Amino acid sequence: QGADFLMVKPAMPYLDVLHRLREQFTLPLAAYQVSGEYAMIHAAAQNGWINLEQAMLESLISIKRAGADMILTYFAKEAVRYV
Question: Are 17 and 8 in contact (CB under 8 A)?
Answer without folding.
Answer: yes
